[in-house]
Amino acid sequence: MHVRHHLGSSILATVILGLAVASAMISRVEAAPFPGTKTSWHGFDRYQFPVDGKTVSVVVPRTAAPGRPWVWHGEFFGHKPEPDIELLKRGFHIVYLRVPDLFGSPTAVAHWNACYRELTSKYRLAKKVALVGLSRGGLYCYNWAAENPDCVACIYGDAPVCDFKSWPGGWGAGQGSRTEWKKLLQAYGFRSDEEAKAYPGNPVDRLEPLARAGVPLLHIYGEADKVVPWQENTAVVAQRYRKLGGSITLIAKPGVGHHPHGLVDVRPIVDFIVRHALPSAERQSPKRLDAAGRVAAELEPSRLVVYKTVAQGELFLHVFEPSDWKPSDRRPCFLVFHGGGWTGGQPRRMYPFADHFACKGMVAISAQYRLRNPRKGTTVFDCVKDARSAMRFVRSHAASLGIDPDKIIVSGASAGGHLAAGVALFDGIDDPSDSLKVPTTPAALVLYFPVIDTSARGYGQAKIGDRWQELSPVHHVRKGVPPTILFQGTADTVTPPSGARAFHQAMLESGNRCELVMHEGGKHGYLMFRRDLLDETLRRTDSFLKSVGLMP
């Protein structure tokens, strides 16, 4: 019996394996080869062929990712191609259906429906597609998505038109285009301007199906856009989508108009599409998270704002706004920098702090900065310059951020605590492009287990080099440093408690207010590891800020 059972199991396993192999072979056979004209697009094969009487272009990856994910462009395919090139490298197909001058009308949606059916059935592309809408391409993407929400993995809009009354209509703050408006009237079959203006089918009016289907959105826009004003398009989508319970990420580019589209560093775009359009089994598994990491994983900022562009790309402020925030507010601001020894880490690490203070009524910001990279020539001095640039940006854009420029609290953890202290102390370590007329002195400092002494007794001398003393907070204490609270573990062997005590003593001797909170037995980063310690630290921070008049 045992032998018979063993043989039966073996036969069954062989049959199952054979069926799996056969299924995989059938799946591969079912994905027909793309027909039509074959050309090269940025080193990848591109096929053009007719579907429903229109021309579709499909750019093929060298190796398709499992599930055959794809990106579908509304309009202007080929403009700013860097995200597409990176996605092709990751196994995505890139698709564009040429239906110009239809402005996402029902006729355009019908052509898209036919194209979708053929690409997903005959060519076996994924059932859920990532949509990309640049400018007027937003009309195509959103109008098709509203009718097919379960077919959409995510939508990336770049200065997208979300209400044709704004563009090409020009019935709001935008300049509009009479020529394009006439084409739109014809495409939709409107008999008059009044009929078009009363139309209830613009993207801003059709968000509920997308929110119900849980479709995530990403919008990148220029705050100075006079062609497709973001206030009439992206802002309306964001407000309504969030009210419906939908998720939208906003990336603002201050001072930028309708052009240029995209970002210098395309990683935020690519990461967004990969995260939502690639099967979860193909994405990297997240590492095990501590208490702060688990909290951060569930949080998203209200928007990202570009505060500076460097050779490596844009640097962002991750802005958390209170639920009742208005641009006309003058709220206190909590600006915080992440740690990581100046060589690692990311703004998300400090999301729990930003979210906490946003819930308390502040505008809270977790800032990105360049990371030290000797190969690229980026130093700790560059990290400090970025932190001081961030402070100047926040202060000079106080009106649009809805903050009081005289109530900016600067904070940070570990190396981020060093940068926070540097905002207040390191005069002269400035980016040449900064306006030195904008002061960097904050209203208060909140430092969590900071790098406070960069001498051989502390941390950082090897990374900074011979000029370490220029970037050692304990060596720059003077009269007039803002009120400070510093949290430190007694068992910290990375940033030793001796440095925190020396800084505290120097602050008091200089006539400054400084509170030192020592946690007995706490190792480096102790307050990030346990939720009770994190909550206790935030409560203690609240009390300190209340005592100096900075809590709302």
Question: Can you walk through the features of this model?
Answer:
This protein has 552 residues and is of the alpha/beta class. It folds into two domains: 50-281, Rossmann fold (3-Layer(aba) Sandwich); 304-547, Alpha/Beta hydrolase fold, catalytic domain (Rossmann fold, 3-Layer(aba) Sandwich), CATH 3.40.50. It has 18 helices and 17 strands. It has a 17-stranded mixed beta sheet, with helices on both faces. Strand 6 (129-134), helix 4 (137-147) and strand 7 (152-158) form a beta-alpha-beta unit. The chain is elongated.
What is the element layout, followed by pairings?
Blueprint: H1 2-30, E1 37-41, E2 44-51, E3 54-60, E4 70-73, H2 82-89, E5 93-97, H3 106-121, E6 129-134, H4 137-147, E7 152-158, H5 178-188, H6 193-197, H7 208-213, E8 217-222, H8 234-243, E9 248-253, H9 267-277, H10 291-297, E10 303-310, E11 313-320, E12 331-337, H11 351-359, E13 363-367, H12 380-396, H13 398-401, E14 403-413, H14 415-425, E15 444-448, H15 461-464, E16 484-489, H16 497-509, E17 514-519, H17 526-529, H18 531-547
Helix pairs in contact: 2-9, 12-14
Write a compact overview of the structure shown:
The protein has 552 residues and is of the alpha/beta class. It has 18 helices and 17 strands.
Q: What's the CATH C level of the largest domain?
A: Alpha Beta
Low-confidence stretches: 1-29
Based on CA atoms alone, the radius of gyration comes out at 27 Å
Average pLDDT confidence is 94
What is the third-level CATH name, the topology of the largest domain?
A: Rossmann fold
Q: What portion of residues is helical?
A: 25-40%
**What is the H level of CATH, i.e. the homologous superfamily of the largest domain?**
Alpha/Beta hydrolase fold, catalytic domain
If classified by CATH, what would the architecture of the largest domain be? 3-Layer(aba) Sandwich
Question: How many helix segments?
Answer: 18
Question: Structural class of the secondary elements?
Answer: alpha/beta
Number of strands: 17
| Oligomeric state, counting identical vs distinct chains | single chain
| Number of structurally distinct domains | 2
Q: What shape does the CA trace take?
A: elongated
